[in-house]
Predict the structure of Stage 0 sporulation protein A homolog.
Amino acid sequence: MDKKRVVIVDDSDFSVLIIKDILEKNGFEVVGHAGTLDEVISVVSETKPDLVTMDITLPGTDGFECTKEIHKIDKGIKVIAVSSMLDDEMLQKAKNFNISGYVQKPIDEEEFILAVKRVLDDEELFKHFQSLYLPIFKEAFSDALNRMTKTIATYKGERLSNETIQSKGIAVVVGIIGKYSGRMILDMSVESATALTDKMLKKESSKQTEIIAAIGEFANIVSGNACSMLNRENKVFGLRVSPPSVFYGKSLNISSAKIKTYSVTIDTEFGEMILNIGFSRGDFEWM
């Protein structure tokens, strides 16, 4: 694979040296640097880099104006802000100017390279992620079920869909954020939830609140373990789960996601369950 080409925009020679050293040490090709708006336009037009690292405070201009001019040259050029200034207003303005990431000085090499890779490897990385996540979530479900109940899950089929989910009675929804955003839904009947809870608690559950808490925690373990496995595959993913939300009722429907999701039918000792999971290429959290 060809080296990714980078232009450094910074009016500090010291910062240019630091950034250049980190990039080249990690396999990137620095093809130029600039410290003013005119230099930015000239260097970017000439070199057509894959990425520009952008200082926000520059003489006679700022990083936002420079970014606007870069995207006039080529909208496909990615820009990462590298600045000592960092606050909510700056982050929002950076997003408004289509800056893809934000790293604060002094630069931590590992965090900086992670942010660069998140921005540059998006297309190839997302394809790889799509091939990974469903098998890993199935593995996490099987492992959690076996460890907590000493029983085996059997997968009957899977389909890609964005249809509304008609719940069997209890549905747990877990939101996931990181490089890609998504959700996991675990759905089952009240009878299955009760039987699973009894097995996990090793006693009969006497309260509905116990069942809801147990199923919510089981789904939380499945999603958390799956995200941990994905993060070990590539720490760029940076996935984290939100607290589970449990819904229950006789006529419960979960609205369709804006993205296509995989629905997997699972046979267990406690009855049939549905695992629904999907991700989109949303905004990742900036470093």
The chain is about 45% helix and 30% strand. Helices lie at 13-25, 37-47, 63-73, 88-96, 109-120, 122-149, 190-201, 208-233. The radius of gyration is 24 Å.
